[in-house]
Amino acid sequence: MSRSDAAEMILVLDFGGQYNQLIARRVRENHVYCEVYPHTLSLDRIRELAPRGIILTGGPNSVYGQGAVTAPKELFSLGIPVLGICYGAQLMAHLCGGRVETAPTSEYGKTEVDITDKASLLFDGIPTKNICWMSHTDYISVLPTRFHTTANTPVCPIAAMENPAEGLYAVQFHPEVMHTEHGTEILRNFVYHVCKCMGTWRMDSFVQKAIEELRKKIGTGRALCALSGGVDSSVAAVLLSKAIGSQLTCVFVDHGLLRKDEGDEVEAVFGTSGTYDVNFIRINARDRFYAKLKGVTEPEAKRKIIGEEFIRVFEEAAHEIGAVDFLVQGTIYPDVIESGLGKSAVIKSHHNVGGLPDHVDFKEIVEPLRLLFKDEVRAAGRELGVPDDLVDRQPFPGPGLGIRIIGEVTAEKVHIVQEADAIYREEIAKAGLQKNLGQYFAALTNMRSVGVMGDGRTYDYAIVLRAVETSDFMTAEAAQLPWEILSRVTTRIVNEVRGVNRVLYDCTGKPPATIELE
Ligand code: XMP
Q1: What's the maximum distance between 2 C-alpha atoms anywhere in the chain?
Q2: C-alpha count within 13 angstroms, C-beta hemisphere, residue 183
Q3: Contact 495/508 with Cβ under 8 angstroms?
Q4: Domains, the chain, ranges and CATH?
Q5: Is residue 230 a known part of a binding site?
Q6: Alpha carbons 394 and 413: distance in angstroms, whole number
Q7: SS3 of 28, please?
Q8: Which of 13, 214, 294, 373 is deepest in the core (most CB within 10 A)?
Q9: Catalyses which reaction (predicted)?
Q10: So what's the pLDDT on residue 515?
Q11: Mutate to test the pocket of ligand 1, among 350, 401, 472, 518 (most ligand atoms within 8 A of CB)
């Protein structure tokens, strides 16, 4: 997908806000293509991109603070409509001649906003009083010339302002977050009423154009794809297979840390008896991974070993295949956006199948999904006819069950957790609960405890069941599963899985816990 395919585009300039991805998602949900760029994007590049509208995100700074991130004044006289959100609103006020100050009272959370200008295109069809999400300490104290106030709150006299003649709009609140009652409509009003977009962004056109582009780019060349069986790499592989068929080789490294039967399921879809015209190589590297993990108990050490070993196995396979022209990566848009942002503390070193190997001989990388959000990847997968159970698959981490077994990984423990997890997933599916759960799985604690089975004493492992509700996987709440399901799963696990005599349910949210146990 290139810019030329999206005749109408909204540009989001990122000033370091927490919700920049959400803005882009909300715009795309309105069928308008949208890309996020750093706030340092040059005016020339903006002119080249010729967006229909520009959105300035929130950010942690003060417009008058030292080292404040800013934008050139000329941004507001390009003849392109601009919507400033939170920090973006303050920046607009500041650069257009208004004033921004620290408010005597900060405003955080849900706030009732009063819309004072019923004629504003931005608030078309929005009730006069509505709840918006505020998160600011600074506020616009003096309007720039030619602007007028369009909304206020009890502590924020200019909660929204505009200069419609020049296409400049600003809101102090965050329309992109769910807590703002009519936020999506406000963004829709901006893209349709102000920017005059038509809403032509559709998944079927993405898929067709992506296939054509891949054909053009790859020609008669050969491509190599690391397949994990997860949504992203599967959809990327299918897209490539439709574009170049058997010029594609998919390498699936089975590290022995997959869920029960998962390796065979991936092979059934992509292997010789599957539906796709690709070369499929399955490497059973289980013993190699188990040997490397022997005696290792520290989570980060396990993650690093699994990640590195994965790359080594993949490199060896690539070496045997010989030089390829293109390496396919399942990178998706959140990865692209996140990798462009500042540094944050390393909680876990993530390993993704498709992480870049050093010693694979290829000329270029192709990332056909790099502009799609996860839900768009799923929609593209459906459009391509990828089986539902693959498209709707819950996320599964690159290090697999290796990080769902606390302490040392052994073949016996992998078997226990695979069996317990399969029972759990089966019962969740039977009860139809999976739709509301972001992720659910069984993990193996390193704890053994005393139990009694039949007339004998046992000293066995405890399985922990986890189920979380989340939309972004950055925060999550433990799901309140019905007791009857938990109870049935518990009975089945202790009866059917040898080596387990106790089942626990993890009631912790994220934060303070993380979703995975390691
Ligand atoms: P945590 O445990 O950090 O997980 O709350 C958040 C989400 O990320 C997934 N996860 C990973 N995914 N490679 C991945 O591709 C990894 O190394 C990895 N570690 C965690 C996790 O399953 C959850 O969806």
Answers
A1: 86
A2: 25
A3: no
A4: 9-194 (3.40.50.880), 203-392 (3.40.50.620), 410-505 (3.30.300.10)
A5: yes
A6: 22
A7: helix
A8: 13
A9: XMP + L-glutamine + ATP + H2O = GMP + L-glutamate + AMP + diphosphate + 2 H(+)
A10: 94
A11: 350
Question: Could you report the average pLDDT of every consecutive run of 10 residues in the chain (518 residues)?
Answer: 64 88 89 92 96 94 86 96 97 96 87 95 96 91 97 94 98 92 96 96 88 96 91 94 95 96 93 90 97 97 93 89 90 75 56 65 88 89 91 91 98 98 97 94 97 94 96 85 98 98 96 93
Indicate the burial class of 206 (C-beta count within 10 angstroms; 0-12, 13-18, 19 or more): buried
Dig out the tokens for 402 from the structure: 């290796």
Q: What is the pLDDT of residue 211?
A: 96
* Residue spans of beta strands (DSSP E) within 436-485: 439-453, 456-469, 477-478
Beta bridge partners of 13: 37, 56
Q: How far apart are CA 210 and CA 217, in angstroms?
A: 10
| Ligand 1 site-directed mutation target among 305, 437, 516, 517, most atoms within 8 Å of CB | 516
Asked about 176 being catalytic, the answer comes back as yes
Say if CB 38 and CB 69 are below 8 A apart: no
Q: Is the pTM of this model over 0.70?
A: yes
pLDDT of 3? 46
